[in-house]
Amino acid sequence: MEIRKQLGLGRPRAEDLAGILEREAASEGAEQKAGDGESVPWLTVVIPNYNGEDCLEGCLESIYHGGQESVSVIVVDNGSADGSASRAKARFPQAEYIFLPVNTGFAKAANVGVEAAKTPYVFLLNNDTALEPGAIAALGRALARQPRAFAIQALMLDWSDGRLVDGGGDAYTPLGHAYALGKGGPAARFAQMEEIFSCCAGAAVYHRQAFAALGGFDESHFAYLEDVDLGYRARLCGGRSYLAPEAGVRHKGSATSGSRHNAFKVGLSGANNIYLLWKNMPYWQLLWNLPFLAFGLALKWAFFASKGLGGDYGRALRRGVEICRQSGASSRAGALLSYLGRRQRCRRHWHAQGWLYRGLADLLRGRA
What we know:
The protein is α/β, with parallel strands linked by helices. It is 44% helix and 19% strand.
């Protein structure tokens, strides 16, 4: 991908990721990330936008006039037809705007924004969000505590009631189900910084060079689960993700797709989930999880069928299989880790498997 060429990186490897994170932690004093009320040279906010007429300007307002530190902002407009980015540019000309001619999907737009950034870290932010006062400074303090982190997510709060959680990080299970931790529960449940499986890209800070070394978001996803896939790949390469609950971001949710469950969203997420499993699990792990996966897929089909979307989900699974066939073996995580010894490869995948079990346990305990 272009993002790796821009930074002078070759084929992504686990040793690249570990080395990049180690060098960054050693070269920059962690206290610099905490901020001092002036400009923040370590962070660029990247906002992918598609028809964000009702939300984009509010998001920018929360950054520029909401008690935040001064940061660079890049808005990547994904071929919007509502003129939302043009109106935002007239009101907030201090931001940088990139206009794509067509809707290329969230994954591509996010990659374009990250490529354009010049700072060590990028803060990916959905256009239907609003930062709570001091959120950026809180993310800086979190990075100071975890300077070798690959990614750190802000606590996403319900738009109408900030006491409730919209998402406290992404979890994944051997059922093949991804879900947002704590959704609908009290925000007070998340009292301290903790490691999570992956960050939701709706409000997450990424180490820019490590992001590039992994190839960024896989643009085959278009939208949905591209962030879980990236977090999974990072974990296989030794990268860790964390939640910083003191950094709050309010989120409307489904502002682009229109509703929580619809044919468009079901079609993309269903196909992307099959692709995610295929490329991140070696054959032995797929077989190991097969009983869980078969049950999980059947459960999802029954759920969507109850909402009149069973046919859409079935077609999505077939499309996912076709994407896997087209991708070939070169996209699999096994190829990414092929230079490692067999024992080390196995250890990395078992580590990830442990997080899948943890995600299932949290789901059964009602933490989802």
